[in-house]
Structure formats: structure tokens, C-alpha cells
Amino acid sequence: MRHKCIADAECPVACTLQMVGEWWSILILRDCLRGLTRFDQFQKNLAISPNMLTRRLQTLVDAGLLERRRYREHPPRYEYILTERGRDFRIVIAAMYDWGSRNLPVEGQANLPRPSSLPDKDAENN
């Protein structure tokens, strides 16, 4: 699927931001990388309204970052699984984590260990 980028059609950064630049989407992808897959898990973890979560999940599915899979027939329930494209976004989340850890320290949390769901910094540089 090809998305038309309004801001700057030649810039991959602009296109990426248009696709996932909304902060709820990035937090949902972060939670997927941590192993969350179900609507109620996202809602509880993010304290996001059901309507907003529904819209954000659909946007991520439409963008090819998540796949929606039914895990229960009655009542119908779905889980959201990272696609290869979604898993590729993990390096972006890792970069944001590293930048935030260095530049926006939270009092008492300056030296939090890097989550195991993020790629190893040394592996990224090779």
C-alpha cells in the first residue's frame, strides 16, 4: 500500500510521520513490542478512550503495521499482531527511548534498563 505524503512527497521522514506520527499510534506500537495484543490490554495500559483506540488500531491496520486476528467467535474478539512492517518500527521506538533517556530524564528513573523488546544498541550500529 502506498500513502500519499502531503508534507513532502520526497521525504521518508514526512511520510513516516504522516503514517504513525500521532502519539497514540506510537504508544500502541510500543505496547505491541512489549507483547500486548488485545484491545482491553491497550486500553488499560494507555488509559485511552475506546473510540480513540478503535480509530488508532484501524489506522495501524490500514497502514500495514498491525494485523487484526479473531481469537474468539462469540462474542467476536480480536487481537492485533505486528506485521513485518510493524516489527521494523522497533528501531524507531528504540531511538526514541534512547533519546528520551538521555535528554528527558524522569526524576528517579535516570538509569532505567533498556527494555528487552528493543534491539541492542550495539547491534543497531553494525
Characterise this structure:
Helices cover 51% and strands 10% of the residues. It has helices spanning 12-20, 23-33, 39-46, 50-62, 84-88, 90-103, 121-124, and strands at 66-72, 77-82. The chain has a two-stranded antiparallel sheet. It is mostly helical and 126 residues long.
Residue share in helices? 40-55%
Q: Termini separation (Å)?
A: 30 Å
| SS field, number of helical segments | 7
Q: Quote the average pLDDT.
A: 84
Q: The biggest beta sheet, please?
A: 2 strands, antiparallel
SSE string, helices as H and strands as E: HHHHEEHHH
Strand content: 5-15%
| Secondary-structure content class | mainly alpha
* Overall spatial form: globular
Strand order of the largest sheet: 1-2
Number of strands: 2
- Which stretches are low in confidence, meaning pLDDT under 50 for 5 or more residues running? none
| Radius of gyration of CA atoms, rounded to a whole number | 16 Å
Layout of SSEs?
Elements: H1 12-20, H2 23-33, H3 39-46, H4 50-62, E1 66-72, E2 77-82, H5 84-88, H6 90-103, H7 121-124
Concise summary:
The protein has helices at residues 12-20, 23-33, 39-46, 50-62, 84-88, 90-103, 121-124; strands at 66-72, 77-82. It is mainly alpha-helical. The longest helix has 14 residues, at 90-103.
Defining traits:
126 residues, mainly alpha, two-stranded antiparallel ribbon, 7 helices, 2 strands, 51% helix
